[in-house]
Amino acid sequence: MKKLLSVLLAMTMALSFAACSGSAANSSAAAPANSTAGKAAGGDSGDMTVVGFSQVGAESDWRTANTASMKETFTEANGYKLIFDDAQQKQENQITAIRNFIQQEVDYIVLAPVTETGWDTVLKEAKDAGIPVIIVDRMIDVSDDSLFTCWVGSDFRKEGDTAVKWMQDNLKDKKELHIVHLQGTIGSSAQIGRTEGLEAGVKANPGWKLVAQQTGEFTQAKGQEVMESLLKQNDKIDVVYCENDNMAFGAIDAIEAAGKKAGKGGDITVISFDSTKAGLEATLKGKINYNVECNPLHGPRVESIIKELKAGKTPQKLAYVDETAFDANTITQAVIDARAY
Ligand code: AHR
């Protein structure tokens, strides 16, 4: 009997040891779904949130300020590992960057798209991988809105309408207005909205003549080059409508090199967008007559979206940033001193 009891005890101990080993093996296989440990990108990211940011490029002062805002927000000290990619103004580079982010299993993808169209396939890949995509600055045009989580940026059409309203109010004494138009990157929301605003203004004001419309690709060098050739081709230019500050700087250089005066009390009225610090300095000097703001400080806005998502909330699908505009007749040094970008 004693022998039988000790055999039974040994069998029970062996069985319970096997059961414990089994449960230990199972628990180590079940890592929490939202854990970043062991991710391809997060090998050394520990508990940090991994954000892949595909940036358009570095074409303008606005863009530089936007990149700085993202980098200052998504720091390791704030709990993030930021994977930054500069696409050099090329959509194919952005598509490659997004595919790399998917492969690296980032927690969030942030996309500042160069143009509106052409995103369906790659964003479907991100969706299938279960990675939320936040669009920032310019908008995208996709067949299915569930391909992105949400968007934050500017109302570019409203910016164009604001500029047109100023032209109507301030240039109404001129029977005819000969306008040349320096456009941004063709197909980008910033170009589309600001162009739509001007074209609607031209339709509504019979005296307004759109004598030329050409892209300066949002850069100072191209803005200058295009304006130089437009000045050679057109004797009569009353207004240059520049879709950003950097193209306005280039246009002003070209106007002055042609022996004309740009801006307030000059030969050619200069309209610009962005209102960067340098743009506002040119406005205070009177070289830009009217500057419509476009706010690039999106880092904290994107971070608050990520915090909402982490908390299981649903962020607003489309969030427009509040913006204003500055007139050379009323701007003060204090406005420029207070400018963060
Ligand atoms: O999308 C925002 C625009 O892009 C800014 O107006 C311009 O400066 C930038 O390059």
Verbal overview:
The radius of gyration is 28 Å and the shape is elongated. Residues 1-38 have low confidence and may be disordered. The strands form two sheets. Strands 2-1-3-4-5-11 form a six-stranded parallel beta sheet, with helices on both faces. The chain has a six-stranded mixed beta sheet with strand order 7-6-8-9-10-12, with helices on both faces. It folds into two domains: 45-154 and 296-310, Response regulator (Rossmann fold), CATH 3.40.50; 156-294 and 326-337, Response regulator (Rossmann fold, 3-Layer(aba) Sandwich), CATH 3.40.50.2300. With 341 residues, the protein is of the alpha/beta class. The protein has helices spanning 2-29, 61-73, 91-103, 120-128, 156-170, 189-204, 220-233, 245-257, 277-284, 299-310, 333-337, and strands at 49-55, 80-86, 108-111, 133-137, 150-153, 177-183, 208-215, 239-242, 269-274, 290-293, 318-320, 325-327. The structure holds alpha-L-arabinofuranose (AHR). Alpha-L-arabinofuranose binds next to helix 2 and strand 9.
Q: So, CATH architecture of the largest domain?
A: 3-Layer(aba) Sandwich
End-to-end C-alpha gap: 89 Å
Question: What's the structural domain tally?
Answer: 2
- What's the CATH class label of the largest domain? Alpha Beta
Radius of gyration: 28 Å
- Order of helix and strand elements from N to C terminus: HEHEHEHEEHEHEHEHEHEHEEH
By secondary-structure content and strand pairing, the structural class works out as alpha/beta
Provide the CATH superfamily of the largest domain. Answer: Response regulator
Keywords: Signal
Domain Periplasmic binding protein: 51-291
Organism: Faecalispora sporosphaeroides
Subcellular location: Cell envelope
